[in-house]
Sequence to fold (380 residues):
Amino acid sequence: MRSYVAVATILAGLFTSADAQAYNFLRAWNGGAIKYQSNMFTLQTNPTVHARYRQVVNTAAQRINLNSSNAWVNVVIDDDNFSYLRNSENEVNWVSQATFRSICGPTAGSACAPNHYSHSLQSSTRISESDVVVWGTETPGLLNTNSTDSELVAQLWGYSSPAARPLVNTLLHEIGHCLGLQHESRVYSIMGIDWTHNTSGGMVTYADLGSDSISGLNSVFGSYEVGRWEDVQVSHWKYAGNASGEYANHKRTEAWNTVGGNLNWNSNWRAGAPNPIFVGTPVIIDATLENNGYFRYDVDVEWVFSSDFTIDASDMVLARATYRNLRPGNPAPVYSPYLQMPAAMRGVSGIIGVRIDPANRIAEVQEWNNSAWLFRVTVF
Fold:
């Protein structure tokens, strides 16, 4: 995750958002942002690595290109088999442990992250070259590359054990550095602990830059075709303070009783017993909402009960609310109205989930990130 630069209030049905933009950029001596020298960042991939690695790089680029800023990522095949620093090419490559340490230092942890890092050449005003190096050829389970457009919940850190780190998330984080974004510790962000910046409404997760990083890119690169790249999303992860003072830490969302007591529900998607929910005893569950677009929105939110592991329009609605004034760049915690299970559901097991913009009132560039499962439950 680490980048080294060389040289150079709950009210049922009504919620309100407050500004919390916190993105970080490289800064020049005069306080101005140091960004990549062009709006188009072309990243070259080693032609000899497995095709699935290149596909995940493409997936990360596609996710970045769905943002509302004028920053773009283009992925091409490199014209050689090596990644060189200071060769005027932006490259990503998977290398052996020996090669990684020769580039990064004899002890990886002291010079960069234990298995990956980004390296940029910069002047006082711009980044002229950025490279991403991943130690992965000898440890195929270290970074998950088994899927293309999405990542399987059963394989990933934060959800399963044993598991692997999601490569899409790692690449989003590192390419963010290449564009000029720095680590973020103050809000829910891909530039914090990246492997828990996800949403999932089924058996796969979905990762993207998120509203804080997108807002940062908008502030520095400008916006592209205002109004065209609108997107809102909901997640079952939330901000949980900072880790080591540099990275935003994230944890799973939680459930409470009506007097504010944490129910300490099990958030594991498959291990352990389902959580008990009792007919006539309401609970409150939180989630994180994000606005990745340009305009502010009043967004509708539904909390639902699903008999399977996919949160969709067929699920039983438990409660509805409207979140007022969801701002771009402002990851916002939202608390449900009181959720109660009907007596007819006694003895039934399933999933409590959440959906944002269920009636599709907002014209979005993607819908994959509009639902999230929250907890497995059994009704008593």
User: Anything to note?
Assistant: The longest strand covers residues 316-326. The chain has two domains: 3-8+21-227, 250-379. The chain is about 15% helix and 35% strand.
